[in-house]
Amino acid sequence: MSETNNSSRAGRLGAPGVVFIVVAAAAPLSIMAGTAPFALSIGGLAAPAAYLVAGAVLTLFAVGFTRMTRVVHGGGAFYSYVTLGLGRRAGAATGVLALISYNAIQFGSYGLLGMQFEAAVARFTGLDLPWWVWSLLAVAAIWALGRRGAEVSACLLGVLLVVESLLLAALVVAVVAQGGHSGLSLAGLTPQAWGHPGILAALGIAFVCFMGFESTAIYRTEARHGDRTITRATYAAVAFLAVFYALVLWALVQAIGDADAVAVAGADPTAVLMTVIEDYLGAAAGTITYIFLVTSIFASQVAFHNAINRYARALAEDGLLPAGLQRVHPRFGSPTRAGAVQSIAAATVIVAAAILGADPFLQMTIWVSTPGTIGVLAMQCLASAAVAAFFLRRTAGRATAVIAAVSTVALVVLLALVIVNIDLITGAGAVTNNVLLTVPAVAFVTGLVAAGLLRHRRPAIYARIGGEDAQRVLAENPQGS
Questions:
Q1: Which residues contact 182 (CB under 8 A, 6 or more apart)?
Q2: Domain membership flag for residue 481
Q3: How many structural domains comprise the chain?
Q4: Which region, left, alpha or beta, applies to residue 9 given φ > 0 means left and ψ of -120 to 50 means alpha?
């Protein structure tokens, strides 16, 4: 562990840098270009406000989540938190689930990235290359950025995020200034709108759109003033995403008109944003949006790559993965060995998909990413329950325990909504959906079994699960460890 810590570029990231990384992982422009209009099509006019509800639930979650940063000083995030609250076996299982989930999301998203690059390059240059070529080039570029360290990625992601946010903000201003299609309204806040039969499904989809915000804690060891930086970054990321998503989607509704917005979004969710931007900001703005839609997805991939590498390093430091994965670059402080392994794995999946003739959107982006999405949402539930259990055992933390317990119930409900409506997300049949739902469950059970084997066969490594903080706290409170 000392090698990693001494070599890392600790203290380089401030709260803005962490916010840039985690918000970029959520890819707000790409969300507005497809996912949010899709939520509108099935949830009705209340869909914009659903993002505020999801944000409120995640703010409750953030109370306990950020309190744990004062206890856990490493970069294990969910893995470390679950270990502290629910014991080493649950912690190890969460670590395995984290690696599988984040990798699944990134592997799948390379399909979308390659597809968008293929279309953009063909549109602007006439060069027509298959999607997987662009995906493989992106893997190499993302590996190179990850190697240079999180602060370099934060600078790039900050620029891209600011541009795409300004573009969407300009759209909101233009729609409001022109009074929308038929006047501005708040019909989405009425009881009639919230009585729409699909609003619960839309709420589940809105919840998914915050994916990546939880990775703030992964950068704990690289942040200036760790506790304060991670706390500020977490709340800022949740608040920004909730308000921004709700505001932009509301503007899209106003631009089309309350009477037609749901039907238009249902006809072609992916065309709504581009059509509205060209109508209200002009054709040139539409071209710019097209370009930054591609960079938004690229930025999300960079953010996930960095998060995966840091999870792998934390698990390697604790003996759950090969020790070589904890090595960091002597100059840049980045987990280069973990980054190389992750990039090779991503390239292998892309090549396999190309050989099998997989559809880059349906079978790569949607089907491969869905188990990861379910896994990350499940980890949020586990982490919230762990926080409640951890602080319930401490008199000074009872208020935090209560808040965490409430957020756990809300998160479980939201996760259930996503699972129940998985057919809307995947467009697949029951057999495929059941397989996709089984993947995160198998990952978690595999972690439980592996931890059980370590406890009996390699107790010294088992005792290291969760890192030094877990060793100290579990020694004081050994029950359930």
A1: 257, 258, 259
A2: no
A3: 1
A4: beta
Burial class (CB in 10 A: 0-12, 13-18, 19+), 20: buried
Core vs surface per residue 276-286: b (16+ CB within 10 A) or e: bbebbbeeebb
Please give the residue range of the domain that contains residue 431. Answer: 2-476
The CATH code of the domain that includes 403 is 1.20.1740.10
In a domain, 49, yes or no: yes
**Nearest-angstrom CA–CA distance, 173 and 364:** 36
**Is residue 479 classed exposed, middle or buried when 0-12, 13-18 and 19+ CB atoms within 10 A define those classes?**
exposed
Whole-number Cα distances in Å, 169 to 28, 34, 120, 187, 213: 12, 17, 23, 21, 21
The candidate with the shortest Cα–Cα distance to 111, out of 368, 363, 372, 360, is 360
Contacts 24+ apart (CB under 8 A), 453-458: 454/92, 455/88, 455/89
Inter-residue contact 369 to 105 (CB < 8 Å):
yes
Q: State pLDDT tens for residues 353-401.
A: 999 999 998 899 989 999 999 999 999 999 999 999 999 988 778 899 9
Q: Please tell me the pTM assigned to this model.
A: 0.87
On whether residue 110 sits in a domain, the answer given is yes
